[in-house]
Structures are given as structure tokens and as C-alpha cells.
Amino acid sequence: MENVFDYEDIQLIPAKCVVNSRSECDTSVELGGRTFKLPVVPANMQTIIDENIALYLAENDYFYVMHRFQPEKRYNFVKEMQERGLYASISVGVKEEEYGFVEQLAADQVIPEYITIDIAHGHSNAVIQMIQHIKKYLPTSFVIAGNVGTPEAVRELENAGADATKVGIGPGKVCITKIKTGFGTGGWQLAALRWCAKAASKPIIADGGIRTNGDIAKSVRFGASMVMIGSLFAGHEESPGETTEIDGKRVKEYFGSASEFQKGEKKNVEGKKMFVEHKGSLKDTLDEMQQDLQSSISYAGGTKLESIRNVDYVVVKNSIFNGDKVY
Ligand SMILES: NC(=O)C1=CN([C@@H]2O[C@H](COP(=O)(O)OP(=O)(O)OC[C@H]3O[C@@H](n4cnc5c(N)ncnc54)[C@H](OP(=O)(O)O)[C@@H]3O)[C@@H](O)[C@H]2O)C=CC1
Ligand SMILES: Nc1nc2c(ncn2[C@@H]2O[C@H](COP(=O)(O)O)[C@@H](O)[C@H]2O)c(=O)[nH]1
């Protein structure tokens, strides 16, 4: 792989502005036949999303993916979202019982609009078989499959029937896959996204490694239709994680889906737990993301998200922050 880089190594190059106000820039994106306000989705992790946040996001035209760590709640979750006239977006794994769950949804005609197959190493027969199973029983559900980190994987999952693929093995803030296994896209996630996007014929969701709002625009530039984010969404008033105080500061827990805290045992642990500063309301963060992305579109010289896809860029190896922090 030539040209390896990550988010912090890239700066996008401005083009002539065509708007009089950033508010004229449209950040909306289409995925699976619906239009969402932002190309951003909170990670399907237990300290990032719960039923209340899913409801808020769906009601306000944001994309969401409910996590799969309370499997017994998923059936009613789908029904309740749809009874409110909202779309349902859930996650599944690949273990035996998940096959039965998909069949039960089909038998009862409780059909989620979106299903994400959420496992660590998505380039596998297990995922291919699950894609085919969902497409057989729930052909109208939009299937997102992952996670992967190579063009071969994207092609294979698309060929198996996936409607979108999710790219990112190990770039996450609470991920320790890269350290424990030596594998992944950690440290070159943006280059991996570009590599995968070149092979993709369907939407790609960039997953993990987003540390600033500018990284959302960079993801779009390098081929993402949607960006999945954990750490920037952790620590909100509404976030499900436990709130505590460390050194007089209010903090909230954020743990990996493959951490000991999630699994309840120390087996195949590839995630850790951290505490993030309490951040206030989720709405404020979403509004700020939208404003920053509108600004990105204006710097791209357009009025729509797609204008970011064509901008030039430079590689400025490890230098853009110069020791600066956002706050
Ligand atoms: N994006 C990322 O970089 C990563 C994300 N995660 C997240 O952690 C959660 C748990 O993931 P996961 O452990 O896959 O889910 P599960 O614990 O549900 O495992 C899914 C199945 O895949 C098997 N499996 C898991 N990893 C591998 C592997 N490397 N090779 C072969 N088989 C494997 C498991 O068996 P067995 O356990 O017996 O091997 C199990 O049968 C998910 O939410 C996932 O997204 C985890 C790691 C990396
Ligand atoms: N290797 C692991 N990756 C994990 C784990 N739990 C979640 N994740 C991935 O991280 C992203 C979020 O990344 P962030 O940089 O925005 O915080 C999430 O969507 C998963 O793909 C884990 O335990 N191990």
C-alpha cells in the first residue's frame, strides 16, 4: 500500500466560496432510501446509544444503529419504533441464535429498515452467511456489514448482498486490537478508507478514529457516505455510561464492545474502558457538527456534501496540530 496516512496527516485545500452564508450549505445525505441531516452515526456501543437516544435521533432525522448487547430487547424495539412511525435500525451478530432471531422477525413481519452485522473481523464466511440469511428472510432490510479493512473484503461482502460496508479495524479510541493482535487500520484508517472506497460500488461507512469534526469532512473526501463515531459521542448528559467524578471533574465511562466490561469475562478482550469529560447535551454536539460541516462545504467551494469529495488535499505528516487543541 503506497501513500499511507491518517486523519491528522491531511489538510483539505480550500476552493472559491460560492455561498454568502454557511447556513446555505446542505449537510444531508441519503442512505437506504432515507435522507438524514448529517453523514454521521453514533457508534452502536452500549455506552453510546440506548433506546432514548435512538428515539431522539430517529425523530430528528439523524441516522442511528441500536447496539446488540441486550438481544432480548431488539424485537420490541423494532415494533415500538415502527408503531411511532419511525424507522428501526438494529445490530446483529453471527452466532447461531441470531439466525433464529432473523427468522422470527420475518415470520412475524416485524421488519427492521436497517440491520447492521456487527463483528470484529467482518471479512469472514460467518458474515457472508449472515448477509445471505438476512437477504433471504428480510429482503427489504438495508444490510450494513462489517467491519473490514481491505478492498477484497468490501467486494466480497457487497457480492454477498450487503447494501453497505463498514470500514475500520482497530482505529477506535477504546480499541486495543492493534496492540493485542498486531492487525488493523489503526494509524492509517483514512488511507484504508480511500483504498476500500475505490473498490466499493455501494456506500461505505467509515468507522473509528474520528477525533475532531474536521475528520468528518476528511472521511467524506476519502469516500465515506456515513461516518460512525464513538468517543466524540461519549460523555453526554443523555449517554448511557455511568457518571462519576475524577479530580473534581464530572466524567462518564466509555468502554469497548470487546472489553471485559462489555463481555463480563476476560476472554478475547480487544477493548478497554476510559472516562471522558462530561460534555453537556447531545443536541449541542450534533448542532456543532452540522455547523462545522456546513463550513467544510463552504471551504470546498460548494453547497452540498458531494462538493467535499472533489477537493484537493496535501499530506502534512503529523504536523497539523502543532501542539494545538480544539479547547
Ligand atoms: N471495529 C473494530 O476494530 C473492532 C470491533 N469490535 C467490536 O466488539 C464487539 C464484539 O466483536 P466480536 O468479538 O466479533 O463479536 P462476538 O463476540 O459476537 O463474536 C462473533 C463471532 O465471531 C467469532 N470471532 C470473533 N473474532 C474472530 C476472529 N478474529 N476470528 C474468527 N472468529 C472470530 C466469535 O467466536 P470466538 O469469540 O470464539 O472467537 C463469535 O463466534 C463488536 O461490537 C465489534 O464491533 C471488536 C474488535 C475490533
Ligand atoms: N477493537 C475494538 N474496537 C471497538 C471496540 N468497541 C468498539 N470498537 C470500534 O470503535 C468504534 C468507535 O471508535 P471511536 O474512535 O469513534 O471511539 C466503534 O464504532 C467500533 O467499530 C472494542 O472493544 N475493540
Automatic annotation (TrEMBL):
<dbReference type="InterPro" id="IPR050139">
    <property type="entry name" value="GMP_reductase"/>
</dbReference>
<dbReference type="InterPro" id="IPR001093">
    <property type="entry name" value="IMP_DH_GMPRt"/>
</dbReference>
<dbReference type="InterPro" id="IPR013785">
    <property type="entry name" value="Aldolase_TIM"/>
</dbReference>
<dbReference type="InterPro" id="IPR005994">
    <property type="entry name" value="GuaC_type_2"/>
</dbReference>
<feature type="binding site">
    <location>
        <begin position="204"/>
        <end position="227"/>
    </location>
    <ligand>
        <name>NADP(+)</name>
    </ligand>
</feature>
<protein>
    <recommendedName>
        <fullName>GMP reductase</fullName>
        <ecNumber>1.7.1.7</ecNumber>
    </recommendedName>
</protein>
<comment type="similarity">
    <text>Belongs to the IMPDH/GMPR family. GuaC type 2 subfamily.</text>
</comment>
<dbReference type="InterPro" id="IPR015875">
    <property type="entry name" value="IMP_DH/GMP_Rdtase_CS"/>
</dbReference>
<dbReference type="GO" id="GO:0003920">
    <property type="term" value="F:GMP reductase activity"/>
</dbReference>
<keyword id="KW-0560">Oxidoreductase</keyword>
<comment type="function">
    <text>Catalyzes the irreversible NADPH-dependent deamination of GMP to IMP. It functions in the conversion of nucleobase, nucleoside and nucleotide derivatives of G to A nucleotides, and in maintaining the intracellular balance of A and G nucleotides.</text>
</comment>
<feature type="domain" description="IMP dehydrogenase/GMP reductase">
    <location>
        <begin position="6"/>
        <end position="311"/>
    </location>
</feature>
<dbReference type="Pfam" id="PF00478">
    <property type="entry name" value="IMPDH"/>
</dbReference>
<feature type="active site" description="Thioimidate intermediate">
    <location>
        <position position="175"/>
    </location>
</feature>
<keyword id="KW-0521">NADP</keyword>
